[in-house]
Amino acid sequence: MNTYKSKLDLLETQIAIKFVKDxxxxxxxxxxxxxxxxAPLFVYSTSGLNDYLSGFExxxxxxxxEFDTEIEIVQSLAKWKRMALKKYNISSGNGLYTDMNAIRRxxxxxxxxxxxxxxxxxxxxxxxxxxxIEYLSDVVRKIYGVIYKVGIMVEEKYxxxxxxxxxxxxxxxxxxxxxxxxDLTGKERENKITxxxxxxxxxxxxxxxxxxxxxxxRAPDYDDWKLNGDILVWDEELNIALELSSMGxxxxxxxxxxxxxxxxxxxxxxxxxxxxxxxxNNELPLTIGGGIGQSRLCMFFLKKKHIGEVQVSxxxxxxxxxxxxxxxxxx
Length: 331
Prior knowledge:
The chain is α+β, with helices and mostly antiparallel strands. It is built from nine helices and eleven strands. Helix 1 (10-32) runs antiparallel to helix 3 (133-157) and helix 1 (10-32) crosses helix 8 (294-301).
């Protein structure tokens, strides 16, 4: 028997979405000392600025009437932000963020994935000495502090939406997690540890672990695989570990080369673009950055069972009808 019923109706949901987004954005900017900037919806395919995620997703591309070069819709702004920090001459300890929208054509849609992506993309300048797990963990705790605080603010405004987040986030390496649960898959390990602790940051994603498999796949040219990770919270509506953010300290001249070569020598061309060359030649600032999913944050705080309840996207007709029978009404 289906017992789900949204705690907010459609209009209340739209109002609550704005409250969550406005509140979180303001609190994040204060916590990380970052300013909001305008950002591109598309870039030249040859620029090297698009984010190719795990390295296999195809961006949406097109030819414009007045331009000969192919143009791509951004998949995230991991690389563009680093270039922007240099362009704006932003100093160490300071940074920027943007309200990023994207299309991911190869996404398999479900309760937490859609073709439309909306996230806060943020980036900060750091010093060489700060390229450590300790610094990464400190930033993670600041971001989680904002998540926790906004959860309390949502509960105060909408008393029916109880925040069950723990006050502190549990931080663990992907290798430590593997040793704890060697017989589980990466996703199963995430569910196990996040259900236990409520909020978890798993770091070190990309390099093979002691079982010769990476915890998850990552593109080789933006995050340093030793200094990155995901923020997960336990979603009681879906009974899963919900990833709210993927983030990390970015590649330097040595790690970008090592990671691209590890992925495949056939990917040498990934180092030919302007962005990669600037990293290799130490012409870009050292940075830390990531993306925080806006719709996922909203569905979590508003106790929704489907991402389509907090964002407008495209779904198959049969899926819409199936969800209606479960009292899940999409926007």
